[in-house]
Write a structure and sequence with these properties.
Keywords: Membrane, Transmembrane, Transmembrane helix. This protein is mostly helical. 69% of the residues lie in helices and 5% in strands. It has seven helices and three strands. The longest helix is centred in the first third of the chain and has 28 residues.
Length: 201
């Protein structure tokens, strides 16, 4: 009796590599030239890669594991930042001004009587500085933990990031951006890592 499984696996493997390579290429473009369209294209290609990886009846050949991992980490690192930016834009628009060091400018709590009465504007301060670098490290760690089959590490990643940002989350704007940006970044990185985990299982 004819068994179509090898043919299906061959097609799924080819589609997996093509979609993953496409997602990696568009993720790099989205990182260099942030546009929501590029993020959606990369997200679509990543979704196709996830479906192909889950459709495989056996794992891909051992020699292809490192290539899949490199592609997935590329997607996680480069695509996560524009993905988080797109999520923030959808959720909050341009409601806060960007700072000079990658953070956002928020108004400090009034400390003088004049500031409390609205006679003098309260000073602004930049919070969530260095978010791009922190995001890159976070996504490398998240995708790597999924590839390695150790998702428990995600709790450590979130805890370290939360503790490091704790003192900056007093303002509502900072809390909202932190939650939305972190979740979008982690979901993106975990999806990229999950492709490899499913393909080499």
């Amino acid at each position: 009796m004819f068994d179509p499984t090898p043919i299906v696996d061959t097609i799924a493997t080819a589609a997996l590599f093509l979609s993953l390579a496409g997602a990696a290429a568009v993720s790099i473009i989205a990182y260099l030239r942030p546009r929501a369209l590029f993020v959606w294209i990369a997200a679509g290609a990543l979704a196709v890669a996830l479906m192909c990886a889950s459709a495989l009846s056996t794992s891909v050949a051992d020699g292809f594991g490192p290539l899949l991992t490199v592609l997935a980490l590329t997607i996680a690192v480069f695509g996560g930042s524009p993905a988080a930016g797109t999520a923030l834009q959808l959720a909050m628009g341009a409601s806060v001004a960007p700072g000079l060091h990658g953070g956002i400018l928020i108004t400090s709590k009034p400390t003088t009587d004049a500031e409390r009465q609205g006679l003098v504007a309260a000073p602004t301060q930049e919070v969530l500085r260095g978010g791009r670098v922190i995001g890159i490290l976070e996504r490398i760690a998240a995708a790597g933990s999924i590839v390695a089959g150790f998702p428990e590490a995600l709790a450590i990643i979130v805890a370290v990031k939360g503790v490091g940002r704790f003192t900056e989350l007093e303002a509502a704007e900072a809390r909202e951006r932190f939650i939305i940006g972190t979740l979008a970044s982690l979901i993106w990185a975990c999806a990229a890592g999950l492709v490899v985990h499913l393909a080499v299982r």
